[in-house]
Amino acid sequence: MNKFLILAELIHFLSFVLLYYKIKKTRSCLGISYKTQEIYLLVFLTRFCDLNIHFEIIDYVLRIFYLTFTALLIYTIRFQKPFSLTYQKEQDYSQFYNYIYPTAIVLTLIFHTGTSLTQICQSFSIWLEALAILPQMNLMQKIQDVENLAGYYVLCLGVYRGLYVISWYCRVFHAGWWCSTTIFGGTLAVIIYSDFVYLFFKNKGAFKVFV
Asked: Where found, per UniProt (predicted)?
């Protein structure tokens, strides 16, 4: 694992810590999209379906952490009081959500790393992860009053995806490695995050996204 991937995983881990800290500190789920967390849970379930295959211990720890923590966030947002009472269910909805899963499926059929069930699932997780943040961005746009920690959470996810894409392009130029699913899926995610990241640094509190 190169330095970009290590830094990316650290920032990814930090994003979970920030989100959970935000919820516990404010005792509120205001500005947090349950839909995004729901999509992320499916992302991790499909990506980590090869958990029995040999990995370094750090990979096992991170995979179990992401799965467990995402499930915990889902439970907290929807069922654990008083947090669940602040969930903005009506705001956290848009008809375009109906197209996220079909879009990921179509992209998987076009770009996939292989034909085995595991490879198809992992390819699907890459495309789904690229689209997973859209409900969160849409919610932030609707309420137009987001606490800084929620913004930093999305920022961390954007930086995490950006570092992964940088590491992949380094492998392309220096090692001749190429995986269209990984490259195109990561690039799509960076494009989606880029508008938010630009506005975050330009004016904190302004969350204009293209959804």
From this structure: Endoplasmic reticulum membrane
Q: Measured between alpha carbons, how far apart are the two ends of the chain, in Å?
A: 33
> Residues 7-27, buried b or exposed e (16+ Cβ, 10 A)?
bbbebbbbbbebbeebbeebe
Q: Is the CB of residue 84 less than 8 Å from the CB of residue 62?
A: no
- In angstroms, rounded to a whole number, what is the distance separating the alpha carbons of residues 50 and 150? 32
pTM above threshold 0.90: no
Q: What is the pLDDT of residues 81-133, one digit of tens each?
A: 899 999 988 888 887 888 999 999 999 999 988 888 888 999 999 999 999 99
84-99: b (≥16 Cβ within 10 Å) or e: eebbbeebbbbeebee
At 26, list the tokens.
């404010």
What H or E segment, with its residue span, contains residue 21?
Answer: helix 3-26
- Structure-token pair, residue 193: 């995050």
Kindly tell me the sign of the dihedral angle through the C-alpha atoms of 41, 69, 133, 32. Answer: positive
Q: What is the pLDDT of residues 64-85, one digit of tens each?
A: 888 999 999 999 999 998 999 9
Q: What type of residue sits at position 47? A: R
How far apart CA 172 and CA 65 sit, in angstroms, is 30
3-state class (DSSP) for residue 154: helix
- Taking the C-alpha atoms of residue 57 and residue 65, their distance in angstroms, rounded to an integer, is 12
The torsion of the CA quartet 127, 132, 135, 140, rounded to 10 degrees, works out to -120
